[in-house]
Amino acid sequence: MESLTFEYRGGRALAAQPAPVLVGVVGSGNLEVLVEPAPLGGLCRIEILTAAVGFGATWQAVMDDVFARHPLADLRISINDVGATPAVVGLRLDQALEEFAGGAKP
Fold first, then answer.
1. What is the pTM of this model?
2. Residue 103 burial by CB count (10 A; 0-12/13-18/19+): exposed, middle or buried?
3. Cα separations in angstroms, 28 against 1, 16, 71, 99
4. 74: left (phi over 0), alpha (psi -120 to 50) or beta
5. By three-state DSSP, how is residue 66 classified?
6. Which of 11, 72, 97, 100 has the CB geometry, 3.0–4.6 Å to 21, for a possible disulfide?
7. Each residue of 17-58: pLDDT tens digit?
């Protein structure tokens, strides 16, 4: 297992504090994503625990893309990955962040 952490600044907090959201399943080729509000001084922190060791640059590229599409602040995202492809990771994060924001724009 490998643990990765990414942090992003420059996002905007949602006007309301949404409830935490959990999507996905911990299973082969899939992942579980927990999105929750957190007082992080404007940061978006993404913590990843993955079974696919040695793909840090790929994770960085996927997280950069997700943050560009969902620039949120004061947010913690926890990912438990069991070998999901980058496309599945991006789709699960889109699902989780859209459900978390409930259609609200930052």
1. 0.91
2. exposed
3. 14, 35, 29, 23
4. left
5. helix
6. 100
7. 889 999 998 877 889 999 999 999 999 999 999 999 999 999
